Amino acid sequence: MSLDSAATFPAAIWDGDSGNRDSNNNNRVAPDYRDWKRLVNEIAATQRSNQGYDPDTALNSVGTIGTAAGLSLVERGNAAMHKTVISLTNVAMTMTDGSTPGTDAMWGTVPLYTFPVGHIIIVGAHLVFPLGLIIATVAGGGGLADDADLEFGVGTTARANQTNFALAAAEDNIVTEQVGVDLTSAASDAIESSQLAASLFFDGTTACVANLNFITTDDADAGTAADELDLTGTLTMLWTMQGDD
Fold first, then answer.
1. Which has fewest Cβ within 10 Å: 26, 115, 123, 131?
2. Quick count: other Cβ atoms within 10 Å of Cβ 92?
């Protein structure tokens, strides 16, 4: 008779054994607390698997949400294919003017999600900012222009000061750079960006981070002071873990 009340899904399919019965002996006695305990554990294990958790292999478990206020996380899928949905609700992003404003874009970045360490393949991603998505809150005189043009994307490298007005490859390799988003229309228009044209692979030597990156399109969009963007939207990523080194 099986006396193991630990959940086994998905490594094995439960055959009905519990500390009270052996399914091979055609038990006809009424269930007791040991049957209910095993049943609850199996249901809980199934639910965890449907949220991306694998109780048998920690490598296949989900990642962690960023620490910025206003971020929330829902995991879907299973231990093989994850669907990670990150919601932003009035997330504050500090925008910093470039060191040389004439050549360096004003920029901001927020870490959204850290994947577990291992061989990660991202097979799809979608970012949408609904109505009222982007609001500029002036943190000092001479910040973002009222009609500033912005570019944004999601990538595995966080934006820093650079002598350009474009996101580099690793700054928008998860969600492709969206160009020409202006603060005037951002208050009334939904803005969406999606990709991937091909699967994105990471070798797993370090934890992969999904960073939301914003920059200004040219020097006229910003003065010399810091500013703040308040962001509301949703990022959805489909990904899988192949294993570890």
1. 26
2. 16
Q: What are phi and psi of 70, to 5 degrees?
A: 100, 0
Mean pLDDT of the chain: 83
pTM of the model: 0.81
Range of the domain at 4: 1-49
- H or E stretch covering 128: strand 120-129
Is 236 part of a structural domain of the chain? yes
**Residues 6+ away with beta carbon under 8 Å from 112:** 65, 66, 71, 86, 88, 154, 209, 210, 211, 212, 235
Q: Do 118 and 241 touch, CB atoms closer than 8 A? A: yes
pLDDT at 155: 94
* Domain-located, residue 54: no
- With b for 16 or more beta-carbon neighbours within 10 A and e for fewer, the 13-42 pattern comes to ebeebbebbeeeeebeeeeeeebeebeebb
Residues 185 and 218 both lie in one domain: yes
pLDDT digits (tens, 9 = 90+) for 99-157: 888 899 999 999 999 998 888 999 999 988 875 567 777 655 568 888 888 899 999 99
Amino acid identity, position 224: T
Count up the domains in the chain and report the number: 2
